[in-house]
Structure formats: structure tokens, C-alpha cells
Amino acid sequence: MTDLASSSRPKRPEFRNINALNDLPTYLLPPAGIVSILHRISGAILFVLMPFIIWMFDTSVSSEYSFARFASLFNAGLGSVPGWFFKLVALAIIWSYLHHFVAGMRHLLMDINHDIVTKQFGRTSALAVLTISLLLTVALGAKLFGLY
Amino acid sequence: MAVNYGSKRLATGAHYGLRDWLAQRVTATLMALFTIVLLAQVLLSKGPIGYDKWAGIFSSQWMKFITFVTIIALLYHAWIGVRDIWMDYVKPVSIRLTLQVLSIVWLVGCAGWAIQVLWRL
Would you say the ipTM is above 0.95? Predict the structure, then answer.
């Protein structure tokens, strides 16, 4: 009758004994799934690091004296914690923001125009999100660490 | 009339959650516009950005206006997102409620701090 009931329907693969070493490396999320979970992780990172972000806003705009403190955190560090560690934290914030921003644009685009929502678009747009956000992160990260 | 409160409350159906879904998209759009406005001012300024230029961006009243709106938008947006995370992964009501309350405390405290910084500029 229906496709579901027919016996000629191709058998679905079954995984009864998943071997962590052999199977898990090939059992990957599709690009859209990777963008989706990274959207959640990047949002959580920004939520957790929110006080540090506001601290940077506070010290950078309040006065010249506090601006110098803000700058010295990334150059001289704080106590025994070196400056590059705080640059890494800043880089994590930069990546989180960029990924969340670009992946969010993809969400808005798919909410505005349902006609473009196809399996192929889901894949290509997800790859575009990963490419754009990572390239921008590399560019800003290089600037942050003074490579240019 | 069907009972729709207490233990009989209907928690599924048409439009349930639509308001938060829409709010998350509206606040996201506002924050994206703020990002573009801020980025444009940083990129259009000439020379290296020191304290004067950076603080100057936030000194105008219209910039304080949209920064304030962005902080409120962020508060609401982050609340919906974090609440979704707790609802997906934390099932026991006691732990979930505790985490949700702590999230609100965290977000309201952060928003208050950010507004305080903005107000004294």
C-alpha cells in the first residue's frame, strides 16, 4: 500500500554495536548540525563571559586612567597571569560573537524566505557560515596578536 | 468551558512560544543593527583608536540611546536562549528552576552594570 509498508523498501542501516574507535570518527553531524550546536555553544560562552565583556566596556570608556588599565591587561597581564591568556579569552569572545552573528543571519534569512529553505541550501549556507566566521576570526585574531 | 489552568493547563498548541520566538528575532535584529552602527564608526575614524576616539563614540546622546536599547535587547535575547538550553538538558524541576533563577540574577546584574557604565559617561 504505502511505501512504509512495502517490503521492497531499502533496508536502513542498523548500528547495534557501535565501536567508539572505528565508527564515531565517521559518524559526524552534517554542516548544518555543526553550525547549530556551535550557535548554542557560542551563545553560552558569551553568556558566561558577560561580566568580562562589561568590564572591558567599563574600563575602556570610563577614563583615560581606566583605559590604560584595560590595555595593560592584554599587554602586561594581571598578577601571574600573562597578557596572552587574556588575548586568548578575547579571541574566544570574538569567535563566539562572529559565529553567533553570522549563524543568526542565516536563521533570519531562512525565517524571512521559506522558498530558499532546501536541503542543499541548508548545507551550502552552513558551510558559508563556518567559512565567513572563521576567516573573520583569523583576521581579527591576527590583529589582536599584532601580526599586522 | 475546558479547564486551562493548574495541573490541567495546556502547555502545547498553536502560538505557544511564538512570542519568545519572535522576540528573539526582533532583539537579534536590533543588536545586529547596533553592531553595524558601532563598527561603521570604528572603521570610519582615521588613525589609531585611543581612549578619546573610543569614548567619543559613546558620548553622543543618540549613541547612548541605542546602546541602552541594545543592552535591554541582549538581556531578553540571552534569557530566551539560556532558558532553551536549560529546558533541553535539565529535566528535574528543582534544578531547572534554580538554574533559571540564577540565570535571571546573572543577566539582570550584568545589564544593571552595563547601564551604570553607560549612564555616567
Answer: no
